[in-house]
Design brief:
The structure is a single chain. With about 240 residues, the protein is α/β, with parallel strands linked by helices. The chain has one domain (about 5-145, about 150-230): NAD(P)-binding Rossmann-like Domain (Rossmann fold), CATH 3.40.50.720. Helices cover about 40% and strands about 15% of the residues. It is built from eight helices and seven strands; from the N terminus they run βαβαβαβαααβαβαβ. It has helices at about 10-25, 40-45, 60-70, 90, 105-125, 125-130, 155-175, 205-215, and strands spanning about 5, 25-30, 50-55, 80, 135-140, 180-185, 225-230. It has a seven-stranded parallel sheet, sandwiched between helices. α1 crosses α8 (about 205-215). It is globular, with a radius of gyration of 17 Å. Bound molecules: NADP nicotinamide-adenine-dinucleotide phosphate. NADP nicotinamide-adenine-dinucleotide phosphate binds near residues 8, 34, 57, 83 and 140.
Amino acid sequence: MPTMLVTGASRGLGLEMVRQYGAEGWRIHACARSPDAATELAALAAGSGGAITVHTLDVGKPEQIAALAAELAGTPIDMLVNNAGVLGHAIERQEPGAFGTIDYDNWMQVHAINTMAPLMVAEAFVDHVAASEMKLMFFMSTRMGSITVLDEGNFYPYRSSKAALNLLVKAISIDLAARGVRTLAVHPGWVSTDMGSAAAPVTPPESIAGIRRVVAAYGADETGRFFQYDGEELPW
Ligand SMILES: NC(=O)c1ccc[n+]([C@@H]2O[C@H](COP(=O)([O-])OP(=O)(O)OC[C@H]3O[C@@H](n4cnc5c(N)ncnc54)[C@H](OP(=O)(O)O)[C@@H]3O)[C@@H](O)[C@H]2O)c1
């Protein structure tokens, strides 16, 4: 069975990925910045017969990324899942991030977690991915970061951090093509996690079931593309 590493596995979409791929029998390195607080993840790991290992990883801490990459040196990782992400003050303060109201310090934090950290994780784990069968780097994006489909403003920090992530997904696909390493960006839908809120129409199990179909349908020669969880291809 393949091996995956997923960031932000404590709750929401990351946790559901661990649940569904774990049920399929994948070997999973599930990362959480506070494993002690991630009780649902701990329960999944405890019942996995050793297939799921929980690691401490705050993706905003470069030394933790480097330490985990070193700890897992020599371990092939078929699918590297950059899932951890933040919406910024849009949640905590109910500020939509509109023109004229931007908190620039918060924007830098959002950019650090949503854009820089995924690249740092990709750089740290490229050898692990290149040594695997699937050689896939997966990035949890959003259609809110697509310039082509943009039809409203607000959420400037979040949108721009994911638009920049999308560019990286494309650039990494070009730079790593010679090593056979592929990239895939996915919009999970508007999902009823803490980030998506209870108003969201898609549940985490529905979203991840769709994402698993997208991953399974992604050909071994495909790279640098952007799909929605239901299989629709999205423009950058
Ligand atoms: N929900 C949606 O509608 C939606 C739509 C489009 C895209 N997305 C994307 O999907 C991904 C997952 O979102 P979600 O809906 O599952 O959100 P969520 O329920 O708020 O979960 C966010 C996850 O990211 C982790 N995280 C945040 N900062 C971190 C850091 N510095 N280091 C490590 N982990 C960190 C959280 O860990 P803690 O528990 O430690 O805070 C949590 O596990 C994000 O990239 C998000 O942008 C979501």
